[in-house]
Amino acid sequence: MRLRYAYRINPTPGQRIALARAFGCARVVFNDALALRNQAYENGEPFIADAELSVRVITKAKNTPERAWLSEVSAVVLQQALADCTTAFRNFFDSLAGRRKGPKLGPPRFRSRKDNRQAIRFTKNAKFKVTAGGKLRLPKIGDVAVRWSRSLPSEPSSVTVIKDAAGRYFASFVVEATPQPLPPVDGDAGIDLGLEHFAVLPDGTKIGSPRFLRRAEKKLKRLSKTLSRKEKSSANRAKARDALARQHAKVADARREFHHQLSTTLIRENQAIYVEDLAVKGLARTRLAKSVHDAGWGQFVGMLEYKAKLYGRTLIKVGRFFPSSKRCSACHTVVAALPLHVRSWTCSACGTLHDRDVNSAVNLQQEGRRLVAAERKPAPEMGGKRRPKTPAETGKTRPSTLRRGRRGTVDETGSHGSTAA
Fold first, then answer.
1. Residue 417 confidence class, pLDDT cut points 50, 70, 90
2. CA-only gyration radius of the chain, Å
3. pLDDT tens track for 13-68
4. Is beta strand 206-208 parallel, antiparallel or unpaired with respect to 272-276?
5. Can you give the pTM of this predicted structure?
6. For 18, what's the count of Cα atoms within 13 Å in the CB-facing half-sphere?
7. pLDDT of 69-91, one tens digit each?
8. HSE on the CB side for 403, CA within 13 Å?
9. Catalytic center residues
10. SS (H, E, C) the chain
11. Mean pLDDT of the chain
């Protein structure tokens, strides 16, 4: 499985200038490619293929006075910016056709030098490397110092250099990680995610919600007021904007660290974990939007998901319409209504007193076990129908003269096919 390992890097002042140049060149290539494809669409012309687009916005553009400075950065950075434009169009077309899951995507937009996040990507053909001294050697940038918090599990296939809104630089490596199954354990747990308590377990354990954003609101409010009072396009406004961005970065980092620690603990202590498939985007449109974003349920469940695959655990998402809160975990009676302010209730059928959150966690555990058992059942018989014969049995094998499709696959790092095909 593929994972990303991100590390802080400390470029020198000269390397920061070179990175800024690379960010700008990649942005210009992306915008030029997007403009040409939009113009072709408006004129009723066919979609411009990747090869032709590369010649027009990179190869020929370098020979013009207006774009001669594109030669100052690595060609791989420019090609990857062009590939990003193609990927953006592919995702947009797939979303329109219904082939892409999730909400509908809009058409690609132009990049701006004022965007909060700037990034460039180097693949293997760029010949980047980690030196013996532990520095990251990037073409036409130099050897950049890296804060190694852990070693890479394998040789990286690509590295993305990122500058965030707070002015920090990161190197994000894509590596092929081998699953490392942990020793099996007997326990499993249903996790009820909430706002008053971030997570509640079936044994009654309640993990409080840190509320990082709420705790930093006073300082964020003061920094926002300071920013609003600065004159636009002034140096003091830029300093105030950086101070506000750094404070938001601290909040995000603290929340991410909390999620990592809790998800790792739960994965180590349980063989199977059952969580509710919450509609986070829907909840984020209610009056509880700020608290929902502050909790970060989606990021936490995503960590549980990839860590379960990495360490050989089972993660089951229970359907969001399962009545985990309104169902009695003792007799499975479902009450008609249970307002949010009711934190404990007594079952009218069996008389059991329930804590709302603990009862929900127990119900998720029971439903998760049922789903796991259902997946392990043998497949039903085919009802007397004959099993379809394999190509080897019929003798109809694939001729060797047939084409094997386009070169490269979608999940190969650095391989991008044209959306025109």
1. very low
2. 27
3. 999 999 999 999 999 999 999 999 999 999 999 999 999 999 999 999 999 999 99
4. unpaired
5. 0.83
6. 18
7. 999 999 999 999 999 999 999 99
8. 3
9. 192, 276, 357
10. CEEEEEEEEECCHHHHHHHHHHHHHHHHHHHHHHHHHHHHHHCCCCCCCHHHHHHHHHHCHHHCHHHHHHHHCCHHHHHHHHHHHHHHHHHHHHHHHCCCCCCCCCCCCCCCCCCCCEEEEEEHHHCCEECCCCEEEECCCEEEEECCCCCCCCCCCEEEEEECCCCCEEEEEEEECCCCCCCCCCCEEEEEECCCEEEECCCCCEEECCCHHHHCHHHHHHHHHHHHCCCCCCHHHHHHHHHHHHHHHHHHHHHHHHHHHHHHHHHHHCCEEEEECCCHHHHCCCCCHHHHHHHCHHHHHHHHHHHHHHCCCEEEEECCCCCCCCECCCCCCECCCCCCCCCEEECCCCCCEEEHHHHHHHHHHHHHHHHHHHHHCCCCCCCCCCCCCCHHHHCCCCCCCCCCCCCCCCCCCCCCCCCCC
11. 88
Q: Give the pLDDT band (50/70/90) at residue 340.
A: confident
List, for residues 195-210, the tens digit of each pLDDT value.
999 999 999 999 999 9
Spatial separation of the C-alpha atoms in residues 122 and 403, rounded to whole Å: 31
Q: How many CA atoms, within 13 angstroms, populate the side-chain half-sphere of residue 313? A: 29
CB 108 within 8 A of CB 92: yes
Residues across the chain: 421
